[in-house]
Amino acid sequence: MEIKVLHQVMDWNEDVSEEVKKELASRQICMINIMGSPGAGKTSLITSLISRLRPDLRIAVIEGDIAGQVDAEHIAGLEIPVVQLNTDGACHIEAMSIQHILPELPLDDLDVIFVENIGNLVCPAEFRIGESLRITILSIPEGDDKVEKYPLMFTDTDCLVLNKYDMLPYFDFNEERVRANYETVNPGAPLFCVSSRTGDGLEALAGFILENVRKIKA
Ligand SMILES: Nc1nc2c(ncn2[C@@H]2O[C@H](COP(=O)(O)OP(=O)(O)OP(=O)(O)O)[C@@H](O)[C@H]2O)c(=O)[nH]1
Ligand SMILES: [Mg+2]
Predict the structure, then answer these.
(1) Whose CA is nearest to atom 5 of ligand 1?
(2) Domain coverage including residue 132
(3) 185-200 per-position pLDDT tens digit
(4) Which of 24, 45, 144, 206 counts the highest number of beta carbons within 10 A?
């Protein structure tokens, strides 16, 4: 399958983000912004969610990376519509780029667009891209102090996914510390313990996503 590679376009972000949001709302499409560090498991999580959700939902993916198309090739192998966005050095995706990419996707036949943001715990949190759901991933090997060090990423999200939960026995990771700090910066927001590798915990997260997709279609 041939993969389209588009490049980042910049403009006044918040205005464009609202435009994108309205466009997607009019089509009843839920766009989900997946954020987290390099290697946290963004592509793995999207892949596992695709297998869980594809019987119920029509899914496409926008793969954000500074360079290359490795992740898009992976998604294309699943026979899911995908566009690779290369930011050419920028550490986050901007709404204008999403606006530019949307016509490349089969919008009349979609319920969900996953956007894999650039691997970074700082910048992506500051730029809305027209999404209706924000998911932050923290993986066990990254350490239990990240909520304190990078608070915005955990404050401005609809849920936190603790990925690589299968690695918990091998790391000094204090889950209670993360839960307490997350509750402080984002009271009441859900936290899901997941292994994208084994599939453990994915059902609850998939349920949360389905709930949000149904809200958009209601
Ligand atoms: N043990 C374990 N390994 C995982 C899990 N999720 C992802 N990995 C591994 O972690 C590595 C990075 O996963 P990716 O899904 O590529 O991470 P990413 O966040 O998309 O990485 P970038 O796109 O480079 O930012 C890969 O070797 C995965 O196989 C998990 O739940 N458990
Ligand atoms: Mg990736």
Answers:
(1) 164
(2) 4-217
(3) 999 999 999 999 999 9
(4) 45
State the pTM of this model: 0.95
Whether 15 contacts 169, CB under 8 Å: no
**How far, in Å, is the centroid of ligand 2 from the Cα of 199?**
17
Q: Is 167 in the pocket of ligand 1 (CB under 6 A)?
A: yes
As for how many domains the chain has, the answer is 1
Residue 23, pLDDT > 80, answer yes
Query: What CATH number should be reported for the domain holding residue 160?
Result: 3.40.50.300
Query: What is the reported pLDDT for 12?
Result: 81
Measured CA to CA in angstroms, residue 182 lies from 140, 168, 187 at distances of 15, 18, 7
Express each pLDDT in 133-175 by its tens digit: 999 999 999 999 999 999 999 999 999 999 999 999 999 999 9
In angstroms, what CA-CA distances link 35 with 27, 40, 63, 71, 109? 24, 9, 12, 15, 25
> Ligand 1 within 6 A of 71 CB?
yes
